[in-house]
Design a protein that fits this description.
Elements lengths: L10 H7 L4 H18 L11 H10 L1 H15 L1
Helix pairs in contact: 3-4
Length: 77
C-alpha cells in the first residue's frame, strides 16, 4: 500500500472521479500515486507535496503546475 493512498481521499480527487467506471478510477488513482511519488522524490523536502498543494498552485499560477506535469510525463516516458 502506498503512503499516498490517503491523498486520494481528497475532496478534489473524489469530485473528479465521481461517476466514472471503476477501472478508470483505478487507473487514475494509480497515476495520481505515481505523480505524488514523483513530486515528493526530491531529497530534503520541507514538507510533503499533496493533491491540495497542486490545486492551490494551479489556482495561483497554472504555469508551475503545467511544468510539473510536463516533467512527470517525461519521467514516465
Amino acid at each position: 500500500m502506498s503512503i499516498f493512498n490517503a491523498q486520494l481521499e481528497s475532496p478534489y480527487v473524489k469530485d473528479a472521479l465521481d461517476g466514472l467506471a471503476q477501472n478508470t478510477i483505478n487507473n487514475y488513482n494509480a497515476t495520481l500515486r505515481q505523480l505524488l511519488m514523483f513530486v515528493n522524490s526530491k531529497k530534503d523536502l520541507d514538507k510533503e507535496i499533496t493533491i491540495d498543494d497542486f490545486i492551490k498552485d494551479a489556482k495561483t499560477d497554472i504555469t508551475k503546475t503545467e511544468e510539473k506535469l510536463d516533467l512527470f510525463f517525461f519521467w514516465l516516458g
